[in-house]
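[Meeting: bench + compute handoff]

Bench side (C.D.) handed over the final construct sequence. Compute side (W.E.) agreed to return the predicted structure before the next meeting so the bench team could plan truncations. Sequence as handed over:
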Amino acid sequence: MRLAVRAVEVVVGGGSAIDAAKLMLLCLRHDIAKVEELDPYRGFSAADFSVPPADTSSWLRMVAVPTTLSAAEFTWFGGAYDARRRVKDPYGYPMMVPQAIILDPAITLATPLPLFLSTGMKAIDHAAERLASLTVEPLTEAISIRALRLLSRALPSVLAEPADLEARFDCQMGMAIAMAGPAAGVGVGASHAIGHVLGAHSGVAHGHTSCVLLPSVMRWNRGANEARQKTISEAMGRSDVDAETALSDLVERLKLPQRLRDVGVRREDFTAIAEKVLDDFAIRGNPRTVTTPAQIVEILDLAW
């Protein structure tokens, strides 16, 4: 008896490596050799992502083995820097999503501890912004609460004992279940939107953007979703404080950057950053409506 064996692409690494591999799969399948040939796949309207394409069997597929907590392996799109416009754009296609994901805490031992912890804050951002959303539904709410409980407990445990595989696996589980929100259609908000721009415009690491932005975004949004924010601090075991304080205290406890100035963002760039944020897809999901660059600058000032 003959067994058919298909080639797969095995990717071991963090979010940047996995996103790069997604784009490689797209380029290989469609024989793309020039940057501008990727333009039809920019954004989320290039294809119906709920239906597998007719050429499914012709694609090389990916098996992802993540070493960080950024969760790129759970999506069908990948972020890529466009040097022509100095922005980071999403490029998507259904077959870019990994065919399998292997979560192994042992493989994360080689990841620099600050990188592991800062991408853990990105995982917290995935859960917190959806939990704070005015459109969150019961399933995503329950999952996001569980994710925050796991991550807020396990990340400090990893800092205290880096060889603790159980704590590392709890971090991976928290990261993974936090990504159920996108499948339910619950969006994120200003922390993600500004973070996307900071990565491309100012070279800020993806995890660090959540460290320096998420508490201030909660503060700026509080008047629009204070009741939703209470569920964040409660899930983190900090019902005595608001979400901004619970999140900023965790960043400080993890010994990660807390302010925009700590990660090299220049105050004179605020206006240029704010103008780019208005074009980012994630800003549309922010609980407090954002319509002008001046509002984004207000958040940047809070985070400065």
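W.E. noted at the follow-up: The chain has a mean pLDDT of 92. C.D. will use this when planning the next construct.
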